Amino acid sequence: MHVSDLLAAAQAAPGFMPDDEGLALYEAARGVAVPGPLLEVGSWMGRSALYLAAAARETGRQVVTVDHHRGSEEHQPGWEYHDPSLVDPAVGLIDTLPRFRNTIATAGAEDVVVAVVTRSEVLAPLWSTPLALLFLDGSHTEESARRDQDAWVAKLAVGGTLAIHDVFPDPADGGQAPYGVYRRVLESGDFTELPGVGSMRLLRRER
Ligand SMILES: C[S@@+](CC[C@H](N)C(=O)[O-])C[C@H]1O[C@@H](n2cnc3c(N)ncnc32)[C@H](O)[C@@H]1O
């Protein structure tokens, strides 16, 4: 599919990412100036992966997206975003992989999207290719957000772009774990901030 069709498919895909934030992710990914793949932590049903896929198609890259497909804390029974129709009765756990595959296949993006089904902390020690873009959008607990930061940020190439979703400086707007990642990364002095949109923060690695 053509880039504009992929963007339209992303806008129609299931998920919670607002279109303006998805388009900011797409623009950041298509504009990154260093070689390497785009890697996403947290695939859910493939919406943000399609924004990245549009950029990958345009620039001759691949998107790697990792998720165990069992949902985050807020997707579990009794929590705000639980959807009982996602539970696989055979195992009694959420399984978003079929929906993810459907999103990517119907958009015609299987050639540019590589899905890895595991916990991000399992994949990270196996991963050595410098990343052109890293998009952090997995579990948002303090512990797991720190773990993803520690595991993945150092794998970003110098000149590459770090995207962090759900960054809310005001606790009234949302959880603070992604904001903590954003602050620590900026305070490291290794990154400069690029213009972001909504809760999407974009930073370039300078050294
Ligand atoms: C907010 S959703 C991702 C949304 C997606 N980026 C989008 O915008 O379409 C968070 C995802 O992170 C996944 N996740 C949570 N903890 C994880 C972990 N330790 N490793 C990999 N994926 C994880 C969940 O299964 C869930 O699908």
Order of strands across the biggest sheet? Answer: 5-2-1-6-7-9-8
Question: CA-to-CA gap between the ends?
Answer: 36 Å
Question: What low-confidence regions span 5 or more consecutive residues with pLDDT below 50?
Answer: none
General form: globular
Sheet with most strands: 7 strands, mixed
List the helices and strands in order.
HHEHEEEHEHEHEHEE
Strand content: 15-25%
Any idea what the radius of gyration is? 16 Å
Number of strands: 9
With helices defined by DSSP (H or I, 4 residues minimum), what is the helix count?
7
Ligand names: S-adenosylmethionine
What structural category characterises the helix and strand content?
A: alpha/beta
- Mean pLDDT across the residues is 97
* Helical residue percent band: 25-40%
Detailed description of the structure:
With 207 residues, the protein is of the alpha/beta class. The chain has helices at residues 3-12, 19-31, 47-59, 97-106, 120-123, 142-152, 177-187, and strands spanning 38-41, 63-66, 87-88, 93-94, 113-116, 131-136, 156-164, 191-197, 200-205. It is 35% helix and 21% strand. The strands form 2 sheets. The chain has a 7-stranded mixed sheet, sandwiched between helices. Strands 3-4 form a two-stranded antiparallel sheet. β3 and β4 (93-94) form a beta hairpin. The protein is globular, with a radius of gyration of 16 Å. The protein starts with a helix and ends with a strand. Residues 15, 17, 42-44, 47-48, 66-72, 96, 119-121, 137-139, 144 line the site of S-adenosylmethionine.
